[in-house]
Design brief:
InterPro entries: Lysidine-tRNA-synth_C (IPR012796), Rossmann-like_a/b/a_fold (IPR014729), TilS/TtcA_N (IPR011063), tRNA_Ile_lys_synt (IPR012094), tRNA_Ile_lys_synt_N (IPR012795), tRNA_Ile_lys_synt_subst-bd (IPR015262). By secondary structure, this protein is α+β, with helices and mostly antiparallel strands. The protein is about 40% helix and about 20% strand. It has 14 helices and 19 strands. A 6-stranded mixed sheet has the order 3-2-1-4-6-5, sandwiched between helices. It has a 5-stranded antiparallel sheet with strand order 11-15-16-17-18, with no helix packed on it.
Length: about 450
């Protein structure tokens, strides 16, 4: 029974004073023990925890629907709020394991509320697997630091309370507490690298050296400390290189040694909450994008983003279906949801985007993609081609097709948060304020 109280105390210690918790819940033994432990802390130890469990349906296994039902039943039994979220896994990008992970964390990101922390059930043996996978890839200290117990996630934190607990102790807890869980048969498929390590390599290493996983955890922690020190030493310089749009200065990077430049670029990736790039990715980014010919429009795909260059700066640009042929009618009385995840338009009270109100005979539509030979905007004396306007306002090419354009009938009134045409100029007596929540 001692290991039960030890496990509960470890969870309690790692979550600290946080009370609103989103739990990644697959129904497997690890996440089931984590959720059960949190329920025990709430019900037996009377911690004021507000628990929500989220099951991610990857669509990769025929039993996934049944697993979702099992998870929901567990949550009903334990009085835990439950979410089931289906995701799309694109196995062509980075392999099926990485793609599933990316899809899973995007879903976590979507559902995590401002006051919640996310907790997941990785444990000490998972840490050893992650370390060995990073070693196989030839990773440096950042990759070998593997998984931290606590990390920034979605303006809050991701905490892994079981990271110091072995798989053996987790299974002992489950058996002792008579907890039922689902078994993912794909975990026995050694075609996947992680399963190969779990099934064939780690048992041999543990048989030879029983405390191998603990030693790996110490090594990962030391690598993490080295990275934390580099973060501290490079923070002020990185802040100078990065602007409000989170783009990074190519000219300043070019003045650094290759080693330092690569370290800065990796921290730029981290600021965007992206997985760490390989050495090959960093090299391609620098050679093919940063150093491309001056008149080129270079881009490099990185999972769901492209890295692009504009005016000697590098940008992360989400890949979306361009909405250029889209025309949306807007009544103004209700918020308007924009396509391809571009956000929402609504009437507001902020004065950063003020236009005249439409007349009774004017229909309001939202369009995308502007090409107009002669365009007069407020603050400019002469008409310009729309391309010139975009350039003068320093709007990158990819952004120009994603900014909502407000039309009254067929007259352009404004590009939201960017410019207002003379036809859309407001007066003291006739004005509305537009808010765009991206």
């Amino acid at each position: 029974m001692e290991f039960i109280s030890s496990l509960l105390n470890e969870i309690k210690h790692q979550i600290g004073n946080y009370t609103q918790i989103l739990v990644g819940f697959s129904g497997g033994v690890d996440s089931t023990v984590l959720l059960h432990g949190l329920v025990q802390l709430r019900d037996i130890y009377h911690l004021p925890l507000e628990l929500t469990a989220i099951y991610i349906h990857h669509g990769l296994n025929d039993k996934a629907d049944a697993w979702s039902v099992h998870c929901q039943q567990c949550c009903e039994q334990w009085n835990v709020d439950f979410i089931s979220e289906k995701v799309i896994v694109n196995s062509k990008e980075g392999g099926i394991e990485n793609s599933a992970r990316e899809a899973r964390y995007r879903a976590f990101h979507q559902h995590l509320q401002p006051q919640q922390i996310l907790v997941t059930a990785q444990h000490q043996d998972d840490q050893a697997e992650t370390f060995l996978l990073a070693l196989k890839r030839g990773s440096g200290p950042a990759g070998l630091s593997s998984m931290p117990i606590k990390m920034v996630f979605n303006n809050n934190y991701l905490i892994r309370p079981l990271l110091n607990i072995t798989r053996k102790h987790i299974e002992e807890y489950a058996h002792q507490q008579k907890i039922s869980w689902v078994e993912d048969d794909s975990n026995q498929n050694a075609r996947y690298d992680r399963n190969f390590l779990r099934l064939h390599i780690l048992p041999l290493l543990t048989e030879r050296w029983p405390h191998f996983s603990q030693a790996v955890t110490r090594s990962a922690t030391l690598c993490g400390e080295q990275e934390a020190l580099l973060d501290e030493l490079l923070e002020s310089e990185l802040n100078v290189l990065i602007d409000k749009a989170k783009s990074i200065d190519i000219a300043q990077l070019a003045m650094c040694s290759e080693i330092k430049r690569n370290a800065l670029l990796r921290r730029w990736f981290a600021q965007h909450n992206k997985i760490m790039p390989s050495k090959q990715h960093i090299s391609r980014l620098w050679q093919e994008v940063a150093l491309a010919k001056e008149d080129a429009n270079p881009r490099l795909r990185f999972f769901d983003d492209e890295i692009r260059r504009y005016k000697q700066r590098l940008y992360f640009v989400p890949i979306i279906s361009e909405p250029t042929n889209c025309i949306l009618t807007w009544s103004l009385s209700e918020p308007l949801i924009l396509p391809t995840g571009l956000g929402t338009l609504s009437l507001g009270e902020k004065d950063n985007m003020v236009v005249r109100a439409p007349y009774d005979n004017e229909k309001v539509t939202i369009r995308f993609g502007l090409t107009q030979d002669s365009l007069r905007i407020v603050g400019r004396e002469h008409a310009r081609h729309s391309k010139k306007i975009w350039q003068e306002l320093d709007i990158p090419p990819w952004r120009r097709t994603r900014i909502p354009l407000i039309y009254y009938n067929d007259t352009l009134i404004a590009a939201v948060n960017t410019f207002v045409t003379v036809e859309g100029k407001s007066t003291t007596e006739n004005k509305i304020m537009i808010e765009w929540q991206e």
